[in-house]
């Protein structure tokens, strides 16, 4: 433990690349190439070692989603446009214009974003749920549109399951299961909450975290709600996403400034670990550790007051191994590549944190 702590103390987050606008999309790593988008309608591929820009393209809107790498392609959406690019060159393979009310990437009440909703199946085909409930399937450069048929607005992502079904949460808070071949619903489960964070799918369990301080576990096969658990603080909500490590579900909270740990099978409370600021990004696992990148979301528009916190926990003992604070805002979910952590920031900086080997 002493050697690990000393190794952690020897490093700190460093800037390896600077965009000209905030980086709010998740950072995705593939073969040490980092993919991400920015608020000035740019999408980048950057070398993870030296920070050199490999290529970039101009998009129709800001990129705020989680890109997906599939084979030699990189897939992402910028508001209402889905892009499929060659990952090595950035050359456009396909582009799809998505339907949305009023030409906006948000729903009529400005609540549901049409971002973070791309999934890839076992064959490498891409699936995306548009804001109005339409499903798009992209195979190579062939695009198929499956009309909504009263499926309802999509509010939270889309996941592809090994048995050939799609999962997403609609604007009403229902978890919907759809057979990808027939486009028929196999179940619809009212969760009773507006889902704010990305869903976490592990085996035959789906974990859904919402704005009403509620975490729900649903059987992915039947749609049965297995348990519901609440945050200790009724004023907060689950915001950044969840991660299962062993028998524990790790979930980021917002105004509680903590990582809530629940038993993955029963939902029983295990622990509450401080992350110091708002947990608006997806936690990541590295070896036997869990890493959280949190930020003060109330100072994002005040550069002189911005703050972000990076915390590494030992997943076995739940103890904090180390913590860093940087004078920047971070709502960009991080990525681990090799022994380094990468994330973007409100200042347009791409950070790298060398992790202990």
What does this structure look like?
The chain has about 350 residues and is mainly β. It has one helix and 32 strands. It has a four-stranded antiparallel sheet with strand order 1-32-31-30, with no helix packed on it. It has a four-stranded antiparallel sheet with strand order 2-3-4-5, with no helix packed on it. Strand 11 and strand 12 (about 135-140) form a beta hairpin.
Keywords:
four-stranded antiparallel beta sheet; 2% helix; 32 strands; 357 residues
Q: Strand order across the biggest sheet?
A: 1-32-31-30
Strand content: over 45%
Shape by Cα distribution: globular
Sheet with most strands: 4 strands, antiparallel
How much is the radius of gyration in Å? 19 Å
Q: Could you write a compact summary of the structure shown?
A:
The protein is mainly beta and 357 residues long. It has one helix at 2-9, and strands spanning 14-18, 28-30, 33-38, 42-47, 53-58, 68-70, 73-78, 81-86, 92-97, 118-120, 126-129, 135-139, 142-146, 154-160, 165-170, 174-179, 185-190, 200-202, 205-209, 214-219, 225-230, 238-245, 248-253, 258-263, 269-274, 284-286, 289-295, 308-314, 320-326, 335-337, 340-344, 349-354.
What topology emerges from the helices and strands here?
Blueprint: H1 2-9, E1 14-18, E2 28-30, E3 33-38, E4 42-47, E5 53-58, E6 68-70, E7 73-78, E8 81-86, E9 92-97, E10 118-120, E11 126-129, E12 135-139, E13 142-146, E14 154-160, E15 165-170, E16 174-179, E17 185-190, E18 200-202, E19 205-209, E20 214-219, E21 225-230, E22 238-245, E23 248-253, E24 258-263, E25 269-274, E26 284-286, E27 289-295, E28 308-314, E29 320-326, E30 335-337, E31 340-344, E32 349-354
Antiparallel strand pairs: 1-32, 2-3, 3-4, 4-5, 6-7, 7-8, 8-9, 10-11, 11-12, 12-13, 14-15, 15-16, 16-17, 18-19, 19-20, 20-21, 22-23, 23-24, 24-25, 26-27, 27-28, 28-29, 30-31, 31-32
